[in-house]
Structure formats: C-alpha cells, structure tokens
Design brief:
4 helices, 7 strands, alpha+beta, two-stranded antiparallel sheet, three-stranded antiparallel β-sheet
C-alpha cells in the first residue's frame, strides 16, 4: 500500500487526520432522507444541497446536470434539500456545467471527493 486511504476503488486522502475528520464529520451529522422522482430514498447529511444529492445518486449524471427541481419547483443547484423532499435532476447528454464553484456548496464527502477529482 502506498499511504493512501481507499474506499472501494477511490483514493480519498493521504493524510490520516484529514481522513479522520471526514469520517467523524459524516458519522456525527444527522441524516435526512431525500427521494428521487421514482421515490427511491437517498440518505444525506443535514444541510446537504442538490449538488450533494446528485453526486450521491449518480456521479455521472451529476456532471451532466444543469438544473433541478425540488417538489416540482425549479431551484438553483446550490439549494439545500430538506427531509422528505423529492428531487429531480435536469440533465443533458454531455457535461455542460463548470464545477469550479460547486465545491463551495458540497456538504458531503462523496460530492467533495468527486468534484475534487474532476477539478484535478
């Protein structure tokens, strides 16, 4: 092993303290349940945004989204989701949106990891 901490097949960090902080943060947060339009549940940390929802649901689709609806109403991607919301992602066939500022609105380690991977 080369000093990286892995989850599944993805590198998270080389820094043990940073890894500990990420895991502790995720474990100690309250969890909310947000649904897809097909009513499939997704579990997110409190204060998660549409960006967090998208990357938790499907990182490939998240990179293709240009908008979203919460409970049928179009909202900015930076909008926080609430417990029991139904979120629909609006996507195009190819990645169309720059993710440079998404990292500032990502509150889950999954979204942060995926965005950082794209920006690297």
């Amino acid at each position: 092993m080369n000093g990286y901490i892995y989850t599944k097949k993805h590198q998270i960090t080389q820094d043990v303290i940073e890894f500990y902080d990420l895991i502790t943060f995720e474990l100690l947060q309250e969890t909310i349940t947000v649904f897809t339009p097909k009513l499939d549940p997704t579990y997110l940390p409190q204060d998660a945004t549409i960006i967090d929802f998208a990357f938790t649901l499907n990182p490939t689709l998240a990179k293709q989204m240009f908008g979203a609806k919460i409970n049928g109403i179009e909202k900015p991607l930076t909008t926080k989701v609430s417990h029991l919301d139904i979120v629909e992602l609006l996507v195009k066939d190819q990645a169309t949106y720059t993710m440079n500022d998404w990292i500032n609105f990502a509150n889950s380690s999954k979204a942060q990891f995926e965005i950082n991977k794209e920006l690297a």
